[in-house]
Amino acid sequence: MPEFSVQGDIAPGFEPVAEVFADLQRALPQGAALAVYRDGEPLLDIWAGARDKAGELPWVADTRVNIFSAGKPLVAIAVLQLAAKGVLSLNQPIADFWPEFGANGKASVTIEQVLCHRSGVNAFHTRVADAAIFDPAQVRALVAAEQPWWTPGEAQGYSPILYGWILAELVRRASGAANFNEYFQQQIAAPLALGIAFGVPEAEQSLLAEVGAIRGAKAEQGVLQLGRAMKDDPQGVVNKAFTNPMSLMVGTNGAAWRGAEIPAANGHASARDLARVYDALISGEQLLPLAQREACWLERSSGDDRVLQTPMRFSLGFMLTQEGGDRRLGRGARAFGHAGAGGCLGFADPDYNLSFAFVSNQMAQSLLIDSRAERLINALYQVI
């Protein structure tokens, strides 16, 4: 099996961060990439390892990998753009744009409640066929027919998958785009020349990284706690949110998953492009006007999350640092971003004017920020 050493660009003074990245690579041969930007300029843009499970194909500068929930903010940006243009208001009910969504107790669910995970629409109640998520019309019908798990606005509860479909359909209807990915490509990817996609064409899928679990990795405390909640209540919201349908947990290297539009979970991105999105949110107006940017870091919901089983803070579409936590998004009070299953992470720290993205095809058993990202973040702020 060939070895693929660390490659890319390292700004003077940031060699210690690159060395931590190299240490992680030596300890756990993997495909991974790290990008850190400031004012549109890369401080670090490095990668290493293989993109395939056989370990034969090298990771390259623009290798894209499934970033899972780290792609949720990209959906939120689209909604915030439409709000900035006056196309919609964040306190409007979703049903104003999608009348069918108002069924079964969802008529009052607002756009803001979905963005900050207070809608109560977290998971499908009844068993959903595995292939259903690959059919846009079927997904829309299933989501529209759902009912909240609790009174909308009453409590905070993370929506792992339905979040993306609800907001994607809102964007489609409000903007007139054929689908969410069309809007994303035109209004977010094109202005920044990004390769990120929600639904990768089959001809490009051979260039994607294959994801897989780290062999022998021990589940971190947050995952263990989540597992206990799922076991204690097999029909409860926690279990249903992550396992219904099971295709949400398996088949993520398959053509059907890669080519579908699952905006909360199947965005494919390089570290470079993910970091550039966050850089654009804090250093320019290409994505959002100045007046709209604070929506990214102003807290809109906090508390013990009924789905993640841990205290969480959210702005409109972004996770916020949990004060006193061991694993923080940056060091600034306004840091905002989002973790993805297995360890992918993107965030911006306006107080330090930094954007950060770490992606890997080796999935750890971590709930939020895993130990690899934690080490890289610590090393970064030690040299700032």
Give a verbal description of the structure.
InterPro entries: Beta-lactam-related, Beta-lactam/transpept-like, Beta-lactamase/esterase. It holds the Pfam family Beta-lactamase. The chain starts with 6 loop residues before the first strand and ends with a helix. It is built from 12 helices and 14 strands. The longest helix has 14 residues. It has a 7-stranded antiparallel beta sheet with strand order 1-3-2-13-12-11-10, with helices on both faces. The protein has a 3-stranded antiparallel beta sheet with strand order 4-7-5. Helix 2 runs parallel beside helix 5. A hairpin with a 5-residue loop joins strand 11 and strand 12. It has 384 residues and is of the alpha+beta class.
How much is the average pLDDT? 94
Cα end-to-end separation: 37 Å
**Beta content:** 5-15%
Parts with pLDDT < 50 across at least 5 consecutive residues: none
Oligomer status = single chain
**SSE arrangement, N to C:** EHEEEHHHHHEEHHHEHHEEEEEEEH
Report the biggest beta sheet as strand number plus sense, adding barrel if it closes: 7 strands, antiparallel
Annotation field: number of helices: 12
How much helix, percentage-wise, in residues? 25-40%
Going by helix content, strand content and strand pairing, the class is alpha+beta
Large-scale geometry: globular
Strand order of the largest sheet: 1-3-2-13-12-11-10
Number of distinct beta strands = 14
Supply Rg: 19 Å
Overview features:
CubicO group peptidase (Beta-lactamase class C family), three-stranded antiparallel beta sheet, alpha+beta, 384 residues, 12 helices, seven-stranded antiparallel beta sheet, Beta-lactam-related
